[in-house]
Amino acid sequence: MRTGRYKKNYIEEANLGPIAQKLKPRLEALRASWRENKISNAEYVAQFILNWHQAVMGKNSKGSRHNLFSNEVVTALEPGLQFFAQHTLKAVPIAVNRSLVFWAQGKYPLELFERPLEVMEVLEMQTQGKRCVSVITNSENYILGERDPLSFVIHDLIHADHFFTNDEQAQGQIRFSKICWQLSHMAEFEELLKDEQFKKDFDYVSADMNSHEAHLHQTLEAIIKDACTRKHVDSESYMEKVKELQFGLF
Questions:
Q1: Sign of dihedral through CA atoms 145, 151, 156, 160?
Q2: Where do the structural domains in the chain lie, given as residue ranges?
Q3: Running DSSP on this structure, what letter comes out for residue 77?
Q4: Is CB count within 10 Å lower at the N or C end of the chain?
Q5: What are phi and psi of 7, to 5 degrees?
Q6: Residue 138: what pLDDT?
Q7: Tens of pLDDT, residues 65-120
Q8: With contact defined as beta carbons under 8 Å apart, do 188 and 241 qualify?
Q9: DSSP state, 76?
């Protein structure tokens, strides 16, 4: 089930400042409740999304009703989470609903941050079988020059669902993350990581790509070969190192 098409950004950067200023008192009060432990991490994120989404979409914010969760599950949740357990939001994938509810239930091991994480921080979390969710409350500009605050947190929740929704695939991604983590700390890979295109590709495949383990390895192999071609060096020794790490995890 997928409702609506995910937008990379919900808000034009020129419009972000006025909306952020309008929401500021409400978001500050919400953050205060969270910091005082009056609401859970998942509830804080749910209400953060609802506030931003309604500010952007207005009366057209609410999507359709769904039945992913039983009444017993719904009634055990906090108010914001109850909404996501029963309704969609327009232009927001159902993956966001699953991540929020499963996070609240302890099924998705997510950690909340108030800043964007570095790629290596995300990768290290994945080696531990966790994913991050970043809520940025004080931004009137695109975060990292790319996303508005609503899009940023939704992006994290989509990734979380893609990572954890299938246990077998999740275990494969954890193994792959451990390999990437070790590669990133090996002297043999220092030269490759100096290649700007390889660094960009490696960051993506290691911390921003959700897929089956075999496809992840195929992508890693392809970017290593491409980098070696650019540097006019043999890729075989690099591929052997990846295989050694891969088989060492089975």
A1: negative
A2: 13-165, 168-248
A3: S
A4: C
A5: -100, 135
A6: 84
A7: 999 999 999 999 999 999 999 999 999 999 999 999 999 999 999 999 999 999 99
A8: yes
A9: T
